[in-house]
């Protein structure tokens, strides 16, 4: 069966003035559909870089990333943008909602970009906000929500467009452990019920504990792959 | 996108309000100067054309370069009918213009005169309106002169004067006239060196035929009808047959036209400078608003918003800012115009003898903004603000999502 994400010989080097800093030094990995995978490792191990490369937010120095068989390097900027819109959902560490839009409008934003009909949008967004535990808070602006609630809106926004993959960069980093646990419950539920594939970059032991696949990185290389992922 | 742009605009209410206010004041000032120019020029042009020329002048094609009496036109009935059929005609004047000298026992003054038909000119003649003593021309040997000329020659109403001029063959001829009125226009040229006599007497004195004229002056109700009237007259068969050229007042009163052109250009330069200052404020607002949303734009691009859509969103924000400012500025300009049209600012006590291009100007500053100028000013302002907004929009669209996400 074709893996959802296939990473081949991935290298990324940052240039800082005259200095070249290797962030990834050859990553090979296959991620299957429906996985709940976490990249873990110390700071500077390359977790976020790897996540950004999978999300097509940057291009690799060497190697390639294939999503559903499509090499990201072959896509034009607009095609890449469209791929992110339709096949990838993003959850960021914090402050990632548009402050002038309400919880409902933030959730709806992706579907508006996808040009989905308003009736469908309404039904889906309201349902999803209920699922993530924000029923009755649809009309609140981000400033009127707690950190955990804001992150729930972000999860709803990431999942509403029915992407193949949800990329979450340290989603629990700014939350207390109880809120983080609730959020992880929600994401696990979405993974289970909607078959959404979650890929995390994290320091959080709670996330690592719940991951079906845990990929440990060190110095830009895979140190270990635990559970069900197939190391290349 | 419009909802998002609108809300973005009002994130920093005070900043947006100040920018809108600066655009409003800028537009209001531009419209004020434009309207004042329109009002002032309209007034000067109106006074100048009523001092003699008319909005359009029919004259012999050689007359402009060689203003002597051999270059006349024939005022046939057909030609006069064509003139009467001009749309928006206020009146017309049949005249002979020539240089001449007026003499009394106290001295001689050289100047210029128009011989006119009093029944035609009386209604709209500026001289008739500015008579300070006596009456307007009626018939025969009547002459009206400026107060300054009357002072130099020491003449009063009823005094006899001798006019010396050259006939169509260049021979010197003389005739006796009686001063029936004196006028004061406050133009040195008009008051000191100009006079009017009757057309019939001038023809007799100068040996001209009953239809001979140097010019037919065409006066319009609205100076903006001039181009249409000119086109019409140039197409008229009787005008073509007479060999007459249809000359606009800008050529007849070229000094005044040049003055207005230069003054208008300097007005535009002032307005451009004024607006550059305001545009710098607008650029600052939009640029700041883009810079402080770098992270947010990074999020938007990451979740799939296209760069073009992001660019459009910023342009729409700028268009909204421009629209609000322009509409408020238009309202301010309209109010200024309504107020200063009805209640002109009277500066006559400060500038009693002000002239523009040699013509007296009534120093009541009146705004009379024309619709084309109103629309052009607003459109220019709107477009300029939009152009200014394109740079921050491009800057926003060129943000790299990864860099932006690290900008917090």
TrEMBL record, chain B:
Record GO cellular component, one term: plasma membrane protein complex
A Pfam family reported for this protein in Swiss-Prot or TrEMBL: MacB_PCD
Annotated signal sequence range: none
Domain MacB-like periplasmic core span(s) in chain numbering: 16-234
Intracellular or extracellular location(s): Cell membrane
InterPro entries in the cross-refs: ABC3_permease_C, Lipoprotein-release_system, MacB_PCD
Ranges annotated as spanning the membrane: 268-290, 310-334, 371-394
Predominant location category: membrane
Domain ABC3 transporter permease C-terminal: start-end pairs: 269-401
Keywords assigned by UniProt, alphabetized: Cell membrane, Membrane, Transmembrane, Transmembrane helix
Keyword Metal-binding: no
Membrane topology listed for this record: Multi-pass membrane protein
One GO process term, biological-process aspect: lipoprotein localization to outer membrane
Family: Belongs to the ABC-4 integral membrane protein family. LolC/E subfamily.
Protein name, as recorded: ABC transporter permease
């Amino acid at each position: 069966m074709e893996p959802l994400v296939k990473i081949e010989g991935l290298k990324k080097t940052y240039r800082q003035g005259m200095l070249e800093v290797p962030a990834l030094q050859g990553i090979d990995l296959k991620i299957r559909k429906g996985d709940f995978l976490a990249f873990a490792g110390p700071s500077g191990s390359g977790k976020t870089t790897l996540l950004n490369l999978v999300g097509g937010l940057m291009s690799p120095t060497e190697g390639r990333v294939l999503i559903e068989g499509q090499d990201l390097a072959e896509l034009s900027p607009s095609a890449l943008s469209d791929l992110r819109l339709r096949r990838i959902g993003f959850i960021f560490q914090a402050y990632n909602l548009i402050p002038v839009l309400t919880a409902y409008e933030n959730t709806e934003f992706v579907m508006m970009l996808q040009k989905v009909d308003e009736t469908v949008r309404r039904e889906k967004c309201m349902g999803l906000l209920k699922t993530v535990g924000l029923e009755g808070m649809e009309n609140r602006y981000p400033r009127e929500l707690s950190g955990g609630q804001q992150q729930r809106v972000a999860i709803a926004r990431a999942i509403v467009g029915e992407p193949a993959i949800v990329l979450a960069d340290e989603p629990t980093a700014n939350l207390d452990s109880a809120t983080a646990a609730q959020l992880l419950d929600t994401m696990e539920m979405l993974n289970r019920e909607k078959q959404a594939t979650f890929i995390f970059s994290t320091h959080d032991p709670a996330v690592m504990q719940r991951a079906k696949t845990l990929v440990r990185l060190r110095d830009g290389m895979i140190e270990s792959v635990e559970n069900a992922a197939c190391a290349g | 996108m419009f909802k998002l742009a609108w809300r973005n605009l009002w994130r920093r209410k005070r900043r947006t309000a100040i920018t809108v206010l600066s655009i409003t004041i800028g537009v209001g000032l531009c419209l004020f100067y434009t309207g004042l120019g329109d009002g002032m020029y309209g007034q000067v042009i109106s006074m100048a054309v009523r001092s003699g020329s008319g909005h359009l002048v029919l004259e012999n094609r050689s007359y402009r370069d060689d203003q002597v009496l051999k270059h006349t036109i024939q005022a046939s009935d057909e030609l006069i009918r064509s003139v009467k059929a001009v749309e928006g005609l206020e009146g017309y004047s049949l005249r002979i213009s020539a240089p001449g000298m007026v003499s009394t026992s106290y001295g001689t003054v050289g100047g210029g005169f128009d011989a006119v038909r009093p029944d035609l000119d009386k209604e709209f003649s500026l001289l008739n309106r500015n008579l300070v003593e006596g009456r307007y021309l009626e018939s025969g040997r009547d002459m009206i002169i400026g107060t300054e000329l009357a002072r130099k020659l020491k003449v009063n109403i009823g005094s006899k004067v001798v006019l010396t001029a050259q006939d169509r063959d260049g021979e010197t001829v003389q005739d006796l006239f009686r001063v029936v009125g004196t006028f004061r226009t406050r133009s040195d040229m008009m008051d000191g060196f100009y006079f009017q006599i009757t057309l019939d007497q001038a023809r007799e004195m100068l040996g001209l035929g009953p239809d001979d004229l140097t010019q037919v002056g065409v006066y319009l109700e609205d100076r903006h009808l001039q181009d249409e009237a000119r086109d019409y007259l140039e197409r008229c068969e009787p005008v073509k047959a007479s060999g007459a050229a249809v000359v606009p007042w800008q050529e007849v009163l070229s000094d005044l036209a040049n003055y207005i052109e230069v003054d208008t250009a300097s007005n535009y330069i002032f307005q451009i400078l004024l607006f550059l200052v305001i545009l710098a404020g607008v650029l600052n607002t939009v640029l700041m608003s883009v810079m402080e949303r770098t992270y947010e734009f990074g999020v938007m691009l990451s979740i799939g918003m296209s760069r073009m859509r992001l660019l459009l969103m910023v342009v729409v924000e700028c268009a909204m800012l421009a629209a609000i400012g322009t509409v408020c500025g238009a309202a301010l300009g309209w109010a200024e115009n309504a107020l200063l049209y009805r209640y002109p600012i009277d500066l006559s006590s400060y500038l009693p003898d002000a002239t523009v291009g040699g013509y007296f100007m009534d120093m009541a500053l009146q705004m009379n903004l024309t619709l084309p100028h109103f629309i052009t000013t607003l459109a220019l302002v709107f477009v300029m603000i939009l152009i200014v907004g394109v740079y921050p929009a491009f800057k926003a669209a060129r943000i790299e999502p990864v860099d932006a996400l690290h900008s917090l």
